[in-house]
Design a protein that fits this description.
The protein is of the alpha+beta class. The protein has helices spanning 22-37, 63-77, 111-119, 210-221; strands spanning 2-7, 10-14, 42-47, 51-56, 89-95, 122-128, 135-138, 153-156, 160-164, 167-170, 175-177, 180-184, 190-191, 194-195, 202-208. Strands 1-2-4-3 form a 4-stranded antiparallel sheet, with helices on one face. A 4-stranded mixed sheet has the order 5-15-6-7. The protein has a 3-stranded antiparallel sheet with strand order 10-9-12, with no helix packed on it. Strand 1 (2-7) and strand 2 (10-14) form a beta hairpin.
Length: 222
């Protein structure tokens, strides 16, 4: 693994390839957890597809000491067995009604096939970013790959389920965006300030009717 400073209080630990195997990604998650549990004055640590980004309190530890500590943790990873993480699956109900799936017509298939392809897999959470609780999910069927919109929308509704390239995800709040929207979930992606998933978890989408969507949405708001 390589370490690179990206600002006076941030550095990134990265692998020299964009796409990692699940085992390699679990190794990054293990490193992130060890950094979180260390005695370093860590302010924030996040994992992505191929890197761990670390922010620390520069008034309590200088960059050289942080790098030395992280290099030691990396060396320790090479001498311990990285156990496969216990598989946590978070089920998310999605309504694929055309009222919500405003970009379904961009997919050259019947809506029944789109729903079947989108709900059949368990998607690995590789990273959170863009917005708090916005999950980047791997495992999308190649038949659903679709490039981002040429012109992003000024507002995509909270709960919208979208596809961009080979990824799928859920907008945790109203926000601008260029993903192709195929449905909507009534559940919250962030509860009491904490995302409902972490990197390494899995997501399973379940199709619901618009009546079920409205009932779940009403229950949430009551």
């Amino acid at each position: 693994m390589n370490i690179k400073e990206i600002s006076e209080d941030r550095l990134v630990v990265f692998k020299d390839k964009h796409t990692l195997t699940i085992k390699e990604h679990e190794k990054l998650i293990s490193l992130m957890q060890q950094i979180e549990e260390s005695m370093m004055p860590i302010l924030n640590v996040n994992v992505s597809y191929n890197a761990v980004t670390v922010q620390w309190d520069i008034f309590k530890m200088d960059v050289n000491d942080v790098k030395e500590n992280i290099q030691t943790l990396i060396k320790n990873l090479d001498h311990i067995k990285i156990e496969t993480l216990e598989k946590k699956i978070v089920e998310i109900p999605v309504c694929y009604d055309s009222e919500f799936g405003i970009d379904q017509d961009k997919f050259d298939m019947p809506i029944e096939e789109l729903i079947e392809l989108h709900t059949k897999n368990e998607y690995r959470v590789y990273m959170l970013g863009f917005l708090p609780g916005f999950m980047y999910l791997g495992g999308l069927d190649e038949r659903l790959y679709k490039e981002r919109l040429d012109t992003p929308r000024k507002k995509i509704d909270k709960g919208s389920v979208g596809i961009a390239g080979g990824q799928t995800g859920v907008y945790p709040q109203n926000a601008p965006g260029g993903w192709n929207i195929i449905g909507k979930t009534p559940i919250e992606m962030v509860k009491e300030g904490i995302p409902i998933v972490r990197p390494g978890d899995y997501v399973k989408f379940n199709s619901i009717t618009i009546d079920e969507y409205r009932r779940l949405n009403d229950d949430k708001n009551n």
